[in-house]
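Action item from last meeting closed. Structure (588 res):
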């Protein structure tokens, strides 16, 4: 007898009459083609199913088969370095097309396995029972973890050799005597966070090499940040830049329903990028999950859970993982569309009332942890949000803001002026900065926090003074205030502006960043003293050294740190010159 029979279909949602009990969130296979779906509602003898594959061929009367398990993904050694759809099915085939509905999974991959435990040993969930060589030269391995919900005494384990990632290579006997079979891969339900031994407070910074992020609005490993910005303000470029340069061990890049051609850019570009640290392909430590808007809407809705589950899997290996989601607004739109099909009561802007809960559940999975096998790991989440017409008061922006600690707002005006990254320093913020100041102190930058506050204060003042200048005219401002305007320009031009495409400046090490901060701080002190002594602001602006200061990011590369000290000496000399000029003037 069929488990259930379809009687109603509306786009990606269908209802079926059941002949046996189903569970909520149970995965189902629908129709002759065995299309994947998930039970989202139970009502008497009826289930409502959201389809993850194109349901256009389905008809009333078609069978529905229950899988018994919630929607899960297969986590194993075949993931790293590859490109998948939102349900973690490989897109690496010919033409990178997504799988056609109901397509059988390809042959399971084969890996060289080496056991790490012996018969009789007791192992628990999260422990590595073997390792897999994922690359021969230079050798690279990945641990095979006991799934978090398993563990016991090792009854048998295969010798070193080649096996597929789904065959049983180890058997355990649990404390209750139940036999468990382990393979290199295991299934995990995407909507269930993977357990850890302990959640820790946030850790050292996730360094990005981008000055405005690392120095003004830093995020910690295990932290969560959002990047709201209208169309074309640079969200994708910023996320890609962070993916390329940040100091995470593994990057999960989730392209969530942006236009198909944009995702094609990511798919074309990433496989050719070089890892700036290892000089090997960056893809070797990346996973790309691509869900363009031409894929079924419900698969898009599932993809952020797939992405975060994969990220947790690597975190559980004791690694630092960064997940970039571009864009969570497309995910929220998928949620809205499915909710509409389910006939749910729409809330703000048509989004379902549970939008906020879902966002909370997603960002909550960012964490710094002690893993089940007692290792340190972290998962940092960075989500782009694309509010329609840059309106930051729309629901996805508002609700996401409640759950993240760092807010990197992209500003249309800055982007239009081609000032990149177009992060607005006045409305952006970081709740991690105070904690991270200690880290910078330990790196030999005791003044990091003080410099950071000084820059932010000057930028704040700039807005106020510019408003006054518009009313009164710039020349009527007292010299001290004119100086603040000049210094604010300098912070913007010399420090915050940083092209993702400049060979020398696209990445700045912590050392270069702190050198630049100190340079500017020293300049500000000298300039303030000079103005107090009667030097005109225009004379300071006219100094050729100020030109050099403005371009120091572009002109001084990582291996020329001594140039900063030379520039500092040049500035000191130039200021002495200005000061002696005014003193001579006084004498006359
Ligand atoms: N950091 C940057 N450096 C240089 N150019 C940038 C930068 N960020 C954005 N741009 C320019 O802006 C364009 C649009 O950026 P994109 O990231 O695609 O916007 P969004 O994803 O917000 O729609 C890019 O194609 C690029 O030309
Ligand atoms: Mg984009």
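Sequence:
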């Amino acid at each position: 007898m069929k488990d259930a029979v379809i009687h109603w279909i509306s786009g990606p949602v269908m209802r079926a009459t059941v002949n046996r009990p189903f569970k909520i969130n149970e995965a189902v296979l629908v129709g002759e083609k065995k299309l994947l779906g998930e039970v989202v509602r139970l009502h008497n003898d009826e289930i409502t199913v959201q389809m993850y594959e194109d349901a256009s061929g389905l008809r009333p009367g078609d069978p529905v088969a229950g899988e018994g398990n919630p929607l899960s993904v297969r986590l194993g050694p075949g993931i790293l370095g590859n490109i998948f759809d939102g349900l973690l099915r490989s897109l690496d085939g010919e033409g990178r097309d997504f799988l056609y509905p109901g397509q059988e999974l390809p042959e399971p991959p084969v890996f060289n396995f080496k056991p790490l435990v012996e018969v009789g040993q007791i192992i628990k969930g999260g422990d590595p029972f073997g390792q897999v060589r994922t690359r021969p030269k230079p050798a690279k391995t990945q641990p095979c973890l006991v799934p978090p919900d398993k563990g016991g005494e090792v009854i048998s384990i295969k010798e070193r050799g080649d096996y597929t990632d789904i065959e049983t290579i180890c058997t355990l006997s649990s404390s209750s005597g139940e036999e468990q079979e382990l393979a290199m891969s295991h299934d995990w339900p995407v909507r269930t966070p993977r357990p850890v031994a302990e959640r820790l407070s946030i850790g050292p910074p996730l360094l990005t090499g981008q000055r405005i992020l690392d120095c003004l609005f830093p995020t910690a490993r295990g932290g969560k940040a959002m990047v709201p910005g209208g169309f074309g303000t640079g969200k994708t470029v910023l996320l890609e830049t962070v993916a390329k340069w940040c100091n995470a061990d593994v990057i999960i890049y989730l392209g969530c329903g942006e236009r198909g051609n944009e995702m094609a850019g990511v798919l074309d570009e990433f496989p050719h990028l070089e890892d700036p640290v290892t000089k090997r392909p960056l893809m070797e430590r990346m996973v790309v999950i691509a869900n363009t808007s031409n894929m079924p809407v419900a698969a898009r809705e599932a993809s952020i859970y797939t992405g975060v589950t994969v990220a947790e899997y690597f975190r559980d290996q004791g690694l630092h993982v960064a997940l970039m989601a571009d864009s969570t607004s497309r995910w929220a739109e998928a949620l809205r569309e499915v909710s509409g099909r389910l006939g749910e009561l729409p809330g703000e802007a048509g989004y379902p009332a549970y939008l906020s809960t879902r966002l909370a559940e997603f960002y909550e999975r960012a964490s710094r942890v002690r893993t089940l096998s007692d290792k340190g790991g972290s998962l940092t989440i960075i989500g782009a949000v694309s509010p329609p017409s840059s309106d930051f008061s729309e629901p996805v922006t508002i609700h996401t803001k409640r759950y993240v600690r760092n807010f990197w707002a992209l500003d249309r005006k800055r982007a239009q002026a081609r000032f990149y990254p177009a992060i607005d320093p006045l409305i952006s913020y970081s709740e991690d900065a105070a904690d991270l100041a200690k880290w910078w102190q330990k790196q030999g930058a005791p003044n990091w926090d003080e410099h950071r506050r000084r820059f932010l204060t000057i930028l704040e003042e700039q807005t106020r003074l510019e408003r006054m200048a518009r009313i009164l005219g710039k020349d009527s401002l007292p010299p001290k205030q004119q100086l603040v305007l000049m210094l604010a320009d300098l912070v913007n031009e010399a420090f915050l502006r940083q092209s993702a495409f400049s060979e020398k400046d696209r990445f700045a090490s912590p050392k270069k960043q702190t050198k630049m901060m100190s340079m500017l701080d020293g300049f500000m002190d000298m300039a303030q003293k000079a103005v107090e002594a009667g030097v005109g602001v225009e004379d300071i602006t006219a100094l050729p050294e100020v030109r050099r200061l403005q371009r120091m990011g572009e002109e001084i590369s990582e291996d020329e740190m001594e140039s900063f000290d030379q520039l500092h000496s040049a500035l000191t000399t130039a200021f002495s010159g200005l000061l002696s000029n005014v003193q001579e003037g006084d004498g006359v």
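Note appended to the action item: The pocket of adenosine-5'-diphosphate (ligand 1) is lined by residues 229, 231-237, 420-421, 499-501 (CB under 6 Å).
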